[in-house]
Amino acid sequence: MMPIPYGRQCITDEDIEAVIQTLKSDYLTQGPKIKEFEDAFAHYVGADYAVAVSNGTAALHLNCIALGVKPGVKVITTPITFAASANCVRYCGGEVVFADIDPDTYLIDILKVRELLEKSPKGTYSGIIPVDFAGRAVDLEAFRKLADEYGLWIIEDACHAPGGFFVDSTKNQQSCGNGNYAELAIFSFHPVKHIAAGEGGMITTSSKELYEKLLMLRTHGIVKDNSKYQNTGTFATGVDKGIAQEEQTDYPAWYMEMQELGYNYRLTDIQAALGLSQLGRADDGIQLRREIAARYQQAFSDRNFVLSQSGVVEGHAYHLYILEVKDRLGLYNYLREKCIYAQIHYIPTHLMPYYRELGWKEGDMPFAEDYYRNCISLPMFPNFSNEEQEFVIKTILSYYSDER
């Protein structure tokens, strides 16, 4: 059996051909594939607008800027996530406040968030960054009601959940990132994600104002739109003062303005071509992930070494399938001996040395910390064969049957 990672990309001949055609085109970056990918992705998740960026972290950073995060602003997020979900607030000088998870879902606990809000005067907090961890969708309808009660914005970190959904109070499916409840949502196109573009990210929103702001921020804060220019006069046209002294408003084709301090967070056409090709079979990938999850569920239900597991949940996108087990370290090392490279998602962010220096400590998030002591992410990817999955299952069962 070849080594089995916890996740890996699936690249087809069609993907390769899409990249080759872009390499042969006139544009490697800032070309037509970007907008094509954005439009297709917005349609896929049901959002009005999408902005492609260099990675998911860049997406989070730009969202925080667009929503006005700055020193003195407090934002709530979960400790069970990749560090970028919290770091984006720190990039802007804001303060991160963690709320513990619901041990049954592994998602940020809305009751814990409400508890934080109720303990402080209204206006203390500005926003919430809930995470669709492992691919399980947060109930954003409930979070929207809470956010509106306290005047908060929401950034949905949906990096694990393109194609995922939750069912709202009217029994309708609400796709992750559709913009119906969160001001902004973000996705990642890292190779282990559902849609692989090498690197890359996407922001989705239903706000035209935020969309236009994000387009500017991802490209150095530069505007190329006559109707939005601020400079006037002969400087703006580049016309010799001796020829044209009067104020000018007819801008030449070369003109542009940097109106805000932005960043170079652009995606390339090469990446967009690959992402667009992968998006075309995203639904098939989700179905395969759900079938893998169902086999894991069947294999590990009622096992005495399993404390909890991801299970089979409606709308789950299954970026990860997680078991909480007895003797997690022993199992982890045993699997590596068998060339099965399971992973741990995640070390609680509040216990990283950087956040410890800001005052967070063990015991602050008891459910997150308990989860971390036992969790292990099993291999999960669309081209994971039945033979490979059976080998993983048998190896885990073998470890516990031999355990002394």
Can you characterise this structure?
The protein has 404 residues and is an alpha/beta fold. It has 2 domains: 4-220 and 262-279, Type I PLP-dependent aspartate aminotransferase-like (Major domain) (Aspartate Aminotransferase, domain 2, 3-Layer(aba) Sandwich), CATH 3.40.640; 282-402, Aspartate Aminotransferase, domain 1 (Alpha-Beta Complex). Helices cover 37% and strands 14% of the residues. The chain has a 7-stranded mixed sheet, sandwiched between helices. A 3-stranded antiparallel sheet has the order 13-14-16. It has a two-stranded parallel ribbon with strand order 1-15. Helix 4 (84-91) links the parallel strand 3 (74-77) and strand 4 (95-98). The longest helix is centred in the last third of the chain and has 19 residues, at 282-300. The protein is globular and about 90 Å long.
